[in-house]
Hints:
Layout: E1 28-31, E2 38-39, H1 42-48, E3 64-68, E4 74-76, H2 77-82
Antiparallel strand pairs: 1-2, 1-3, 3-4
Amino acid sequence: MAHNQLVIGINVDPETRCAHYHSEIDRIAIKFFCCGKYYPCYQCHESAGCGKSAVWPKERFDEKAVLCGACGHELTVKEYLGCTSVCPACSASFNPGCSLHKHLYFE
């Protein structure tokens, strides 16, 4: 494991991929605003999470909420949404801004 954060989910691998998302670029975890715990995806949070899903409000986008599964660097929401599909710390490729599901994580 390249990071020291606990990532909760179904079949989570060392780079934070899970049973639902496990392609080469699926290597981030999101700290859910509602419970402050890292999950690889919204489906893992629905299965094992707090049961009170809430998105990150815009006024808190400067807080660290995204974990690079390759190196363990924590990005703020603003950094993650503004990056170009690579980790700014280690240049590992990842899903840029979780484009299909970002509305489930961020306001």
